Amino acid sequence: MAGKIPPVSISTEYERRTATAERGCFVCGKITTTVLHGTDNMDWFYVCPGHLEDRNFCKWLNPPPPEPPKQAAPPPKPPAPKASPPSDGKDSTAAAPAPQPAPTPTPAQGPRRYALHRDFQYLRMQHKKEMAAKKAR
């Protein structure tokens, strides 16, 4: 059968990337530079950043780690002693300020990974089949 369309398979996992060219979103047609690129390097499409936040479109596979709870206000400092007569600059009772703890570096995040909802995965499969059928003609 010369007209038979080969089976199409695409990945269910995608990485978010930014393109240099603008094109229309796969879902709504708005111009965007955000691209979802299949992890198998076989599929990619433009999508609005707003759709990536929609849980009915896709699921974020590697969300950022939760931020540690912020500490309450630092404890109040004891009242400073009353002014004393000036000395020769070598005050043995004055304490040096406590060093501030260094902020902990956040681990480097890899690319954001998403899994499409099954309905949009079906639409991608149909689109790929249509493209393969056009090529076969």
TrEMBL record:
One of its GO terms (biological process) is vacuolar transport. One of its GO terms (cellular component) is endosome. InterPro entries: Vfa1. Residues 62-84, 98-108 have a biased composition (Pro residues). Pfam families: Vfa1 (PF08432). Residues 59-137 are annotated as: Disordered. Residues 128-137 have a biased composition (Basic and acidic residues). This is DUF1742-domain-containing protein. It comes from Gonapodya prolifera (strain JEL478) (Monoblepharis prolifera).
